[in-house]
Amino acid sequence: MPMLDLNHKVAEERLKFNSASSKFAYTPAPANKPAVIFVLGGPGAGKGTQCVKIVEAFGYVHLSAGDLLRAERKSGSAQAELIESYITEGKIVPVEITVNLLLAAIKKDGGKRFLVDGFPRNTNNLSGWQQTVGTALNVAGVLMYEVSESVLEARLLERGKTSGRSDDNMESIKKRFLTFQNDTMPVVEYFRHQGLVHSFDGARPIDDVWADTEAALKALEAKLA
Q1: Does CATH place domain 26-224 in 3.40.50.300?
Q2: What is the pLDDT of residues 8-45, one digit of tens each?
Q3: Is 42 annotated as a binding residue?
């Protein structure tokens, strides 16, 4: 499958797929292989909230790239300090670290349906995923929650009052939103071109967002059955 020219200002981030990785990304999962749904959206877009509901309704396993990175950061491992510096600066952690954490969690669980929340965050993430995973897993779809910058700021500042997270402050929030726009949106547009993206207005009440999310999951499940 030829690479889509995103015509995006971050030209160096364009995807470089070989034929094997393209087949992996866009071929429905065989019955004996786990399926992955990527869940994307700006910081504070409500990805985690909707993932909890999906887990309850459909039995998916929810893996948050951010949560895995934060847990590793607190573990005292050799890469904890590196992860800390990237997260605090609102930058994307090197793909090797994130992919290995996700794959370890998937292998440990042994399930058949996974929600991967907050990943891939740039085209390098996606390329790294495909190079590492190969055809062991199938990307079945992408859930994209769209929320304006002003709403995200208000949500995260409110969350920061009790979250204890070092990145829930105005400076980090603005950096994270800019990173999302510059680095993650090209990934979303690539998947949209492939017909894999289900978009939702994440600024609406949680139950309204869930109604649309549930409908999208039912459609995806029908394709995976």
Answers
A1: yes
A2: 433 344 444 333 334 334 444 455 689 999 999 998 89
A3: no
